[in-house]
Design brief:
single chain; about 160 residues; mainly alpha; 2 domains; 8 helices; about 45% helix
Length: about 160
């Protein structure tokens, strides 16, 4: 006997669009067209929870759905300082004559995953924005934000 996963009735497009507006999500804050975001939300197991991840920070009441009680975990945000060894970049790196890796794909052990999650949660909670004005809404944005901070300290431009 095999267990089958019960699939709940999909949430309507209109309800998801209404939720997007209620949460104050814009194409800029989501980093992609709203129709694309809604299409992906419809494929998720918890579409309303998925959309709540894209709500701009500081809108805690809007993040709560009336369907389920939500336990809010209180955590303190702190700041740490680290030293990063960096070689001076060459002119060829900036003008395109030298290869510069622009793709990141990594699997990390659990302790690093915890650190990654804590960085993302803090940036999202504080309403951190990327250089392009978008909020930090996902883990990739957190890495991009970190690299932008390093780039600023190095004096480079995006």
């Amino acid at each position: 006997m095999t267990a089958t996963k019960s699939k709940s009735k999909p949430v309507s497009w209109a309800k998801l669009r209404e939720e997007v507006h209620r949460l104050g999500i814009t194409e800029q804050s989501a980093g992609r067209p709203l129709d694309e975001l809604i299409r992906q939300a419809r494929r998720e197991e918890d579409p309303l929870g998925f959309l709540a991840m894209y709500a701009p920070p500081g809108n805690d009441e809007a993040r709560m759905t009336n369907d389920e009680p939500t336990a809010v975990e209180s955590r303190r945000i702190r700041t740490i300082s680290i030293e990063i060894p960096i070689l001076e970049p060459t002119a060829a790196m900036y003008d395109g004559r030298a290869h510069v890796n622009r793709h990141l794909d990594a699997r990390v052990p659990r302790p690093l995953g915890v650190a990654y999650r804590c960085i993302f949660d803090a940036l999202h909670e504080q309403g951190a924005r990327l250089d392009n004005g978008r909020y930090v809404n996902n883990y990739s944005d957190a890495i991009r934000w970190l690299l932008e901070q390093v780039g600023e300290k190095m004096g480079s431009s995006g």
